[in-house]
Structure formats: structure tokens, C-alpha cells
Amino acid sequence: MKFVDEFRDPEMAKKILERIHRLADEISPAQEKPLQIMEVCGGHTHSIFRYGLEELLPEKIELVHGPGCPVCVLPMGRVDDCVAIAEQPDVIFTTFGDAMRVPGSKKSLQQASAEDCDVRMVYSPMDALEIARQNRDKKVVFFGLGFETTMPSTALTVKQAEKEGIENFYLFSNHITIIPTIKAILDSPDMYIDGFLGPGHVSMVIGQAPYEFISTQYHRPLVISGFEPLDILQSLLMLLEQLKAGEARIENQYKRIVPEGGNLNALTAVSDVFELREFFEWRGLGSIDHSGVRIRKEYSRFDAELAFAIPNLKIADPKSCQCGEVLKGVIKPWQCKLFGKQCNPETPMGALMVSTEGACSAYYSYGKIETKNIA
Ligand code: SF4
After folding, report:
1. What is the per-residue pLDDT across 126-139, written as a single tens digit (0 to 9) for each?
2. Mutation probe of ligand 1 site: the residue of 353, 356, 357, 369 with most atoms within 8 A of C-beta
3. Measuring CA to CA, how many Å separate 63 from each of 58, 78, 236, 348?
4. Cα of 289 from ligand 1 centre, angstroms
5. 85 part of a folded domain
6. What's the total number of domains in the chain?
């Protein structure tokens, strides 16, 4: 049994940081540009700011906050689709809490709820199914959101609904997949990432093997990391050791949670219920091939996209929102003109300010930003 204090030990953190500083000097004594390390997962972004890790790192390492917060990459058009479903008669629209406040082009789900739509916050898709059992005269829609981490529970809920013959339960699938997204980042001409902190929770489901292409085709290292401060520091150290040695391997720092082969039961449930879409639209990153999933034909009676009229429009973010540039690491959150002024956690203009895993929200809450630095 490991206790959380072991992963927050300041003395151990100091020792790892000394090695990180030394290695960063050795790797890039003459390098003008800092090493770009992307933490793919929003949970890592949150931990990095919560524990002030970025400030402890050498200037030669720059952390790029990646697209692994599902709420943050949800495009406005999809929020509009949610609202359009919620506004239809006899619908109870259910969603995780952090999706309630994501702005659509006209309103958020929270605003729709204030205008008499029946929008309910749930903690799991099974909660939504229970609402469907108790409200047989209503159509209960669950807003399926998230990467491979949350996909299995949604898939199992659809299978349960099928088993029980529940006819008033629907899924609006906005589930997304991590591997095509990392590939899109690696192919992007705007970005050069030297190495990745791999997502811990997603990897618990998919395992280690799907990342191998990053090493074999793109020659970059990736270390699957846990979320405690020492996990993240140790993972950074492992990345630097590889970079110093000129290696590009996939390593697993989070072995206490992530099995090498992933979770077969979870993967089976996902592949039973879902299939890849040809493409999916991401906020800030545009359309990425095979990066989202929809419900398979066998379960199509649960598919909200077939059961409800939805606008399905591509809506551009307001010009002043710079979420896309933040997501690509082109600017830091506080360099967005709206940061801390029109856009703050109370009144978010962009999705990165909504979720606690969003880079802008994390910077705002923990970033020790001096007001004079806000653009
Ligand atoms: S401050 Fe707001 S609008 Fe600007 S990038 Fe962050 S979330 Fe988007």
C-alpha cells in the first residue's frame, strides 16, 4: 500500500529537480529554444499548476499544455447541438457537471437549464440510465464526453440499457480518442514537441502499445505518468534521460495503475458499442481523422444523433478567443487578451477556463500571475 505523502515528499522532489536541472544543462547548453515537453492530459496540467511544478523547472524546459481535457476541446457547434436536444419536448438532458458551463454560440447548457430546459448533472452514465428507468414518459439523453477513460462506462451503460430493454435512453456521443490526436500534433507544422508526458488514465484502458508509433515513426519519447508531484517530476526526469541518451522510447512511470496491455474488458465493451468516425471536429485543432467515435449500427436505437434533430453546424470561436493558440502551445493562457478580464472561471468565454483541467483555469487558480502581465 502506498500513501499519498510518499508522492509529495519535498526532499525527494528536491533531489529529482537537481537531476532535472543538471540534465537540462547537459542536453541543451547551446540550444536557443527550450525543450518543448507536452503534458497531453488535463489532469497533469491541473497538478502542474496546483503544486507549482512549472516554476521549479529550469528555463530550458517549457511545458506545453496539450489537448487532453475533453471539455476544453469541445467545439462550440457541439454545445449548440446539446442545447438543441435539451430544448426539444419531453427531453431530460443529462451531463457531467463541467460540461454545463461550456459556452455555445448562443447559450450554455446551464443557461438552457435556467430557461426551463430539463438539464441534469450526473456523475456517471449509469445515473442517467436510472433517470430513464424512473421517467419512462421522457426521453433521457446522456451527453457522452471524454477520451478512452470514460468511454468504457458509457459503452457498458448502453449494453445495460439494451439488456433491460430500456427504450427511452439515448446517448449523444462526443467521445474522442487520444492516439489520432497525438499524431495530428506530431504532424502539425506549427508545433515541435521534444517529448510527451503520456496520459495516465487513458493509458489504464489502452495500455502502452498504441503509443509505439511515436517512438518508431516520429522518434520522440513518451513517458506515461501518474498525477502526483513526484510522479510528474520522475516522468520528466525519465524523458530527459532519454533525450540525453538520444533515445526515443515509450516508458511507463505509472506502473502501479497502468497495465502494459491495458484493460481488456474495457476495450472489449468499447469496441462492441462504438466505431470510429471518419473525422471529428476539435476546438482549436480543427478536424482530426478518426479521432471520435459513434455508436455502432447494432446499438443505433440509442443514438441521439439519429433520434433527434440537431443543427450539426461548425461554429467558429469568437475572434477574440485564443483557445486554439493556447491548446497548441503557441501562447500562454495569460497572453490571451481576454484572460482574467472578460474570461475568468466565473464568466468563462472559452472552454479552457471552464474545466479545472483547462490550462486557463489552472493558470487563473494557481498560476501566480501578476496583474501587470495580463495582456
Ligand atoms: S482566456 Fe478564455 S478565451 Fe482566452 S484562451 Fe483562455 S479560455 Fe480561451
Report:
1. 999 999 999 999 99
2. 353
3. 11, 29, 10, 23
4. 25
5. yes
6. 1
Give residue 27 CA to ligand 1 midpoint distance, Å: 33
Q: Which domain holds residue 133?
A: 76-177+263-307
Q: Whose C-alpha lies nearest to ligand 1, atom 6?
A: 360
List pLDDT tens digits, range 53-90.
Answer: 999 999 999 999 888 888 888 889 999 999 999 999 99
- Per-residue pLDDT band for 31 (boundaries 50, 70, 90) equals low
Question: Is residue 65 one of the residues assigned to a domain?
Answer: no
Q: Atom 5 of ligand 1 has which residue's CA nearest to it? A: 323
Q: Residue 238, class by beta-carbon neighbours within 10 Å (0-12 exposed, 13-18 middle, 19+ buried)?
A: buried
Tell me whether residue 115 is in a domain. yes
Ligand 1, atom 1, lies closest to the CA of 339
To the nearest whole percent, how much of the chain has pLDDT over 70?
Answer: 96
Q: Could you tell me the CATH number of the domain that includes residue 172?
A: 3.40.50.11740
Residue 136 lies in a domain: yes
Burial state string for 222-231 with b = 16 or more CB within 10 A and e = fewer than 16:
bbbbbbbbbb
| Substitution site in 338, 357, 373 for ligand 1 pocket (most atoms within 8 Å of beta carbon) | 338
